[in-house]
Amino acid sequence: MKIVAIENIGLTKDQLQTLATRFEDNKQQFISYTDRQESEDSLIQRIAEAEVLIVSNIKLTANVLQSAPNLKFISVAFTGCDHLPLDYCKEHGIMVSNAAGYSTRAVTELAIGLMIDLYRKITPFNVETRNMMGRRGFLGREISGKIVGVIGTGAIGFNVARVLQAFGCRVVAYSRSVKQDVVEHGITYLTLHELLKVSDIVSLHTPLTNETRHLIGETELALMKPSAILINTSRGDVVDQVALKNALESGTIGGAGLDVFDIEPPLPLNHPLIQAPNTVIVPHIGYATEEAIIDRAEIVYDNIIAYLNGQQINKVV
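User: That's the sequence. What structure does it adopt?
Assistant: Structure tokens below.
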């Protein structure tokens, strides 16, 4: 059986060799590509003979998957799977498992870090201090005591909520379904519009689906407090990028901390949010910690071993 990793999943050379040895010990052929090629021609060439595929966040179309007649299983080294044609996979009997849970701590910490950075202006003051400038009367804000609206109460959203409670925040939530364990932690579910109106900080932790695409647009941003900040560590297209730019420039909201965008960084110079005021933007690093990458490799390996044993864990399709 041929297992193909079509992109670098963040492992060091030694870690990748260890993974390869573990597969080979199970009598499986393992091929790994350590560069990122996104053209369909390159992807088609790489997956042509694969029965099992490892992919992180490269977009794979139905046209690409059609070129792999032996493909039976995809282990996604990521939580979200909106970059895969899941309907095609379901129709053609290709099982898909993700790496749910690997980045819960990492994304939580970045979301909190973006909140603190915006409130205390850490990034701009780092530059100004190096340019021999002082505080100039600036006063920041504290997270403690704020109302934080968490949109999406899966593993990451719930973890963010619990950490914020430890900071002394009142946490409210919006999600497709009410979860009893979330309620038991003193978190109140509201409608989306109610949450946006009352929150000082809004933190997004929802997957990207047809229903959540542009969940936050012009109408929703207009409901937020002028002092409120928006944090997005989920998926870029959950937010209308142009509407957010306009809201930041007009002062409709107070700021935004963004790890994700409508395209994968590097961003072009003409991207709407490159020059947007009162923002901290980073190039999709929420999941990128040494600890999370090691956890992710273990989940990817376990997914494949389960498949080889006639089982499926972390099932998406």
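The mean pLDDT is 97.
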